[in-house]
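Lest this sound abstract, we think one record worth quoting, the chain in one-letter code, the fold tokenised, each line plainly labelled:

>
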Amino acid sequence: MSISTKYNPAEVESKRYQEWLDKGFFKSTPNPDKEPYTIIIPPPNVTGVLHMGHMLNNTIQDVLIRKARMEGKEACWVPGTDHASIATEAKVVGMLREKGIKKSDLTREEFLKYAFEWKDKYGGIILNQLQRLGASCDWDRTFFTMDEKNSAAVRDVFISYFKKGYVYRDYKMVNWDPTAQTTISNEEVIYKDVDAALYYVEYEIEGSDKKVTIATTRPETILGDTAICINPNDERYTHLKGKKAIVPMVNRVIPIIEDEYVDLEFGTGCLKVTPAHDTNDYDLGQKHNLETIDILNDDATLNEDAQFYVGMTREEARKQISIDLKESGHMVKVESMRHKVGFSERNPDTVIEPKLSLQWFVDMQKIVGPALENVMNDNIQFFPDKFKNTYKHWLENIKDWPISRQLWWGQQIPAYYYGDDGVAVGKTKEEALEMAIKDTGNSSLTLDDLKQDEDVVDTWFSSALVPISCFDGFANPDNEEYKYYYPTQTLVTGWDIIFFWVARMIISGYEFANEKPFEQVYFTGMVRDLQRRKMSKSLGNSPDALGLIDQYGADGVRVGMLLSSAAGNDLLFDEKLCEQGSKFANKIWNSFRFIKTQEVQDIPQDPAAKIAGEWFMNRINEVVVELDDLFSKFRLSEALMSTYKLVWDDFCSWYLEMIKPKYGEPIDQKTYDQAIGFIEQVMKIIHPFMPFISEEIWHNLQDRGDKDYVMIAEWPTHAGFDADQVKKTSDVFEAITGIRNVRSSKGMSPKEALELKIKATDFVSYEAYIPVIQKLANVSSVEGTDSKIENAATFIIEKDEFYVPLGEYADTAEDKEEAQKEISRLEGFIKGIDKKLSNEKFVNNAPEKVVAMEKKKKADAEAKIALLNQKL
């Protein structure tokens, strides 16, 4: 078999992925003899293309699903896309605009026809891109949140909520996106600190020459003022109690009301009240029975009720009214300030407008109980669990959820109106008519009397149902797949949608399945650049995801993403990590080639190779135990690092050195066969992280049958390992490194054989390793000693002392000076460790392994100082 000299990801990846597809390895069917392991993909927007967040999230899911598949579980990874109402409608409207077509000129049916054409053309792009990453999804199960199965589920859930009294329709203050011209939820408002102006405006007091100054950041809303509010405890404004004020420009007479809501410290301590354009003002208006004047159109331009600046945008009107107020003598002063302003998540440049609107709401207080209880008692586990507090705070302070959206792209609300205020719900218009007749007793009602609500439900309302709906659990709750796969096992998602999606899936699970939707939630961090900025096109700091795969290979990118992605912590992306991943792939390939290109003969096994085999088998078993523990805790970056060290340090650096025959000589058959077996084990271990190169090497190791693929091979089982032997071998490696350092520091030739004397409490334990020490450190003899050796280089491992007689290379005054400098360095090193260990926060929060390692570093440094002092 010809083996290429260099690993070429571009040649390997498409070939191997197609083979996996052709063999049906990603497909899953219920198997009562297997334990299910199911992941549902966080459905990317149908408008989306692959970005760094997707790369991280889906790499983690693929690592988990591939390991589960190798463990013999029935692994099922369900892919899908989200219809993304606001984003997709904007894309379609933009496409129509380019064709000279206005949405307002189309019927709903005509618009949806264009929208589905757009979705069919562009909607599958991101799923195809995920295949480049190696995602082993069951593509036959691909769902779309607006397909008929999911849409039917939305109708069922809305109707169920309506009949239980969990959804209601009311005029309330909502967050309005003037660009999309729809309401959005509180969670879709992104608050940013912005520079602004604080305008101080004088209002005249009716029937008096007195005036009162009010500070506002939105002077254009003065046109909608219906009251001024003072704090009843504010002695500055006692004279205003019971009085009325006159609104500048419009000359409207408004009451001066009292309420302790007013902050005595902000601005002038006197508040203008505009109930139609501020949530808190609306609450004051309801409490004090104030008039509500809405001065804005849906696109946030001023309307006729404003009386001035009709048709202007908010920003234009603000600029003009500030000029007019100054000219009329009402503007006292303007100050610069910085404050938080809400922007639309879907239209990041759009300032959200508080707006009084008739919308559908979910009464969240009635349905959150089980969702809160079952996370707090760990029936659903969060990794890392710090997010439990975030989740708890949100659910305990939850607001009613506005779910209606003023769009056409989405699931139309199954509510039908008749008469003056009648409302009925139904999966069909006919079903709603039956309800209407039953509710009213009016059998003369006809279908023509019913008109369906024009709005659609919030996209998150439908995606909250996916764990049930993708297995047809609403329409057919007794079906085999739903009963087998639900609840799913793991959800992998960003912490930023813990409220949008995670909480709402949990609520839906307990409400409609009486069961949790998943057992565990693994929260990934956000991918940021090295300046900790969020990746974005506008900043130009988001790399081309597919371009990275082209340059470094999918395996290299996967390794790069995972190397610094501890659960819940932001990943500071550095392209050098992908380069490191690519180099790791090349290292693996070269080590495989080294073994495969050896001349093999039936000769006695080299003693050093025998020791190498015993040690590396123990190391593999030790790492497998460690990996299973790390995977159970979702510490995947640590699991990858353990794998990385096993391959790069243990296998490539030490094992191959120990078994390497002398130049021009063959390797013995036993060692060769053992090495091939080890590579197979290593390929199994790295496969979840690096699926492509592991599969390629697997097939190059030997001729394989049609179904002999590493991706369906058995994960290495927990086997016993000799921890003492692993530890002793590690000490021997440290001794070899010490000898090499002596040789290097003294300028000795690598060909010059040295002697080694060991003063140890148990010298016998080193005797078995003499062939390894002799081979790797070019040592002619290894002997025990009970006393110090003069004129020898020394180093300590644990409590054992190692002496390399120097002869003509013995220490000089210069060497002694260097030793003194080393003592000073080590003493400084110890001080640094002492500072860490005296920090209670570090000791209490760092993993035990890390604390123990710091203590060991200190002990080793102290031992080296003692030896150097003896030497001096």
